[in-house]
Amino acid sequence: MARLLIADDHPLFRAALRQACATVVPDDEIAETTALDDTLQALARDGDIELVLLDLRMPGARGLSGLAALKVQFPALAVLVVSAHDSPRVIRRVLDHDAAGFISKRAASSEIRAAVTTVLEGGEWIPPDLAAAVEAEPGSSAERDHAARLGRLTPQQFRVLRLVADGLLNKQIADRLGIQERTVKAHVGAILEKLDVQNRTQASNILYWLDAPEEAL
């Protein structure tokens, strides 16, 4: 079973990550996925995965939505975010959403190995050349509030919220998830209460905030 999962849709960069990680964990303990839904399914199947290297932008995810999906459904999972957008603000937002660290796509193999080793040992990783700037970045109380409210949702409620944000009606959500329409209605009510919002649009806006592309974060 896999111990580490690389979630990135770029074959060359995925291969580079795998090569670097294979010096930390055996190659046969490394799995790969190329889309958010595949990543969530792989994690559901394999409870041995300790760490995910997650590309911020891949099919099914933009901005921080993929990270939020992983942390809601697998709160104990360590996630190292990987992105070419490595401004201190982006890294601070990633950390505010409970990532274990951040790897820039320009990082050398030695830095990737150090990041993976640090996080597997229970630490947090910030690129050394950006650490001072990230520490100086104040972060956002709204960001932390959004993360905390999303963290109240169950995995199924988060799935329903994603479909609500996609504009699906309760019956369509029920068909998509294979559950009763009344169950969807109950989930939507619970979502509104836990997110402390009044309607589906306000709930969806929390996900739209996460879906902002990295360069706009």
Description of the structure:
With 217 residues, the protein is of the alpha/beta class. It has two domains: 4-136, Response regulator (Rossmann fold), CATH 3.40.50.2300; 152-216, Orthogonal Bundle (Arc Repressor Mutant, subunit A). Helix content is 52%, strand content 11%. It has eleven helices and five strands. Strands 2-1-3-4-5 form a five-stranded parallel sheet, with helices on both faces. Strand 3 (51-55), helix 3 (65-73) and strand 4 (78-83) form a beta-alpha-beta unit. It starts with a strand and ends in a 7-residue tail after the last helix.
Question: What's this, in brief?
Answer:
The protein is α/β, with parallel strands linked by helices.
H/E series: EHEHEHEHEHHHHHHH
In spatial order, strands of the major sheet run 2-1-3-4-5
Question: In which range does the helix fraction lie?
Answer: 40-55%
The CATH topology of the largest domain is Rossmann fold
User: How far is the N terminus from the C terminus?
Assistant: 35 Å
**CATH C-level category of the largest domain:** Alpha Beta
- Summed up, the domain count is 2
Q: What percentage of the residues does DSSP assign to strands (E)?
A: 5-15%
Biggest sheet details = 5 strands, parallel
Structure annotation, total helices: 11
